[in-house]
Amino acid sequence: SFDNTLINIEGMVSYDFIFAKAKLSQSMKGNEVQIKQYEGFQIFNARHPLLGLNAVPLTLSLGQEYMALVITGPNTGGKTVTIKMVGLLSMMVQSGLHVPADSFSTFSIVKNIFVDIGDHQSIEHSLSTFSSHIRNVIDILRQSREDTLVILDEIGSGTDPREGMGLAISILEEIYNSGAMLIATTHYSEIKDYAEKAEGFQNGSMDFDIYTLQPLYKLIVGKGGESQAFSIAQKLGMPANIINRAKEISNSRSTEEVAIVPKTKNRKKSERKIEKVRSEKHTKNYQIGDAVWIPHLHTKGIVEMTANAVGEMKLIVKGERMTLNHKRVKPFIQAEELYPDEYDMDQVFDAKDVRKKKKLMDRKFVEGLTIDSDQE
Predict the structure, then answer these.
(1) pLDDT tens-digit map of 57-89
(2) What are the tens digits of pLDDT across the range 233-273?
(3) Based on the domain organization, do 291 and 165 belong to the same domain?
(4) pLDDT digits (tens, 9 = 90+) for 183-212
């Protein structure tokens, strides 16, 4: 009887699973799709299962005419949702589930699906977003091969744009050379240009209505997208001169090619104010005769001349004159604590022979007696 009970339980579990799959298929209007081993993905009118029936259907292919699809476009345009949908539908098909796509869609069986999506910043392990992404990508590079689907979101982001772009293209090349199928999103226009020229790559973009400033959530394969930053800024009321200047800068290949805008009267006035504040800030902290500590020399010095407009001050350090920026020294002992009132500071700053010459010159004229500026 125990065996019969166990058989009944297993039968109920199996039927429950089958009915659950059927209900899921009905709720999302899923279909049984075609499964083929080496023909990649041909997905028609697919929807993300969690977005419901009102989601904009997407059509894309991967693994036949091209092995890598690079999607560009503005934020909130649907790039990440698209690549998540591809990965999720692929896993659903391989789990024996219907998917919300046309029945003549074709899915390839893959042995691995590797994904790098989202913010992997780790406070516990002191990892930045960029470092976390790179660690994950390194693992993906080690395991990528044929019968693998790789999904990368905003590849190369989180660091210097030029270095990030170069790193991203290099990673895409390596994954492509491994034989894996690849779908990635990016904001870098250089990656879009690369995908347009590289064999085995294809551009895609998320459509955007520049008049309503609303994303259309429609994937256009074969066309690279734009961030629409200028269009959005212009529609929201950004002054035309700023938009034109921004276009001029962005079209320059480097910052060296960007023409410096001539200074206006207001800008010159502001710079004079800043210079005055800097000068006051540099000079108010130290007085002549103050003892200061010089951390990088592990010794102290005496202030002979307070900081100028650029922050440089003259010091006497172990009998030698030295010029240092005020940021490289720290307060040690104030002059009023070191010397009595009306103390002759020449005894601190002048060498012994210079002091003798000065006393002699104060008393009488001595022909041929001079004091070199370097001695003062």
Answers:
(1) 999 999 888 999 999 877 777 889 999 999 999
(2) 888 888 988 988 888 887 765 444 445 455 555 656 666 66
(3) no
(4) 999 888 889 889 989 999 999 988 877 777
Which CA distances in Å does 371 have to 40, 46, 80, 320, 326? 89, 91, 77, 17, 29
Indicate which CATH number applies to the domain containing 274. 2.30.30.140
Q: What is the mean pLDDT of the chain?
A: 82
Round to whole Å and give the CA distance between 211 and 208. Answer: 9
Report yes or no: 45 and 57 within 8 Å, Cβ to Cβ.
yes
Q: Based on the domain organization, do 187 and 207 belong to the same domain? A: yes
For the entire predicted model, the pTM comes to 0.64
- CA-to-CA dists, residue 307 to 285, 291, 312, angstroms: 9, 14, 5
Residue pair 195/202 in contact by the 8 Å Cβ criterion: yes
Within this chain, do residues 152 and 76 fall inside the same structural domain, yes or no? yes
Look at the chain and report how many structural domains it folds into.
3
Shared domain for 354 and 322, answered yes or no, is no
For residues 368 and 280, membership in a common domain is answered with no
Q: Helix count (H) and strand count (E) of the chain?
A: 11, 15
Q: How far from chain centre, in Å, is Cα 79?
A: 18
